[in-house]
Amino acid sequence: MSAQLIDGKVIAAKVQAEVRQGVAVMLAEYGVVPELATVLVGDDPASATYVRSKQRMCEELGIRSIGHHLPADSTQVEVEGLVRQLNADPTVNGILVQLPLPKHLNEEAVLNSIDLEKDVDGFHPVNIGRLAMKGRNPLFVPCTPAGCMRLLQETGVTLRGANAVVLGRSNIVGLPMAMLLQKADATVTICHSRTKDLVGFLRQADVVIAAVGRAEMVTGDMLKPGAVVIDVGINQKADPTKKRGFRLVGDVDFESAKEVAGAITPVPGGVGPMTIAMLMENTLRAAQIALKKKG
Ligand code: NDP
After folding, report:
1. Fewer CB within 10 Å, N- or C-terminus of the chain?
2. Active-site position among 16, 55, 98, 182
3. Residue 169 CA: which ligand 1 atom is closest?
4. Are 229 and 210 a contacting pair, CB within 8 Å?
């Protein structure tokens, strides 16, 4: 393997240690424990697993987490009502509404109803708008792209003037990722399902962020030698040697890419651990903002 391995577990542990320390300082100096409220609507097992792992991480770092579980047939008024109640509760610092919501609910309206200062997922349109604008800074940056930026920073990658290609333009990963890279002075190209010469763009890229959800789509021969590759994708690939019949792979074919890239994240163990770590960082920041406001 020629590429440097970017170890998300090690870097996430560093972020967690910083948060644990910040939480301890807040408790010692102000007697305050940061609190994250999670809102789960319905019984999707994957969503329930994600919420549980976020709550577990809160416990590990000294953050209080309060879980709210609403039935799948909850109305828009009920879900927004709970969010408003959490907005008004001064002990709640961060509100996390687990997505996707059941289809009958208006996700945008629910996200809009979250208090800007408690928007620890960073999906509120005002936070996204600030991310997009020159000279403005959001209170919170969406966790997965924030985690990718931290991986790049910890790897010592120079973004100023670099050609960065983001594969994917979703609201939660691709789009905010592109805006963050642009804020860091990279020259950014966003590729998506309608892009004509995706490989042509990839071959020019010093930094590649893959967030398409297509197993091993990016192969080594598509990359510029020495490129830094951050693989956000989490895909199931059939593997009869595994007990569950599949293994997890990224959007990048790791085996061929590692021979060409300068540095690369593995899947699992790359971006995945960073997402929850950044949520914890955002929750601590929300508590710091609330304290400052109180004076
Ligand atoms: P979405 O499905 O919302 O978006 C996928 C994007 O990829 C779209 O913009 C789509 O284009 C583009 N795309 C799809 N197929 C192609 C193709 N063949 N060529 C070029 N572009 C393509 O996915 P998400 O952004 O939510 O997630 C992306 C991946 O990241 C998934 O594997 C997901 O599981 C993973 N993920 C991992 C996280 C982590 O913590 N590690 C967190 C969140 C997601 P178009 O807009 O034209 O449809």
Report:
1. C
2. 98
3. 9
4. yes
The C-alpha atoms of residue 158 and residue 122 are separated, in whole angstroms, by 25
Q: What is the pTM of this model?
A: 0.97
Average pLDDT over residues 147-160: 98
The domain segmentation of the chain, as residue ranges, is: 31-116, 143-271
CB-CB contact of 113 with 100 (8 Å): no
pLDDT in tens, 92-134: 999 999 999 999 999 999 999 999 999 999 999 999 999 999 9
Task: Identify the architecture of domain 31-116 in CATH.
Answer: 3-Layer(aba) Sandwich (3.40)
Q: CATH assignment of 143-271?
A: 3.40.50.720
Ligand 1 centroid–CA 32 distance in Å is 38
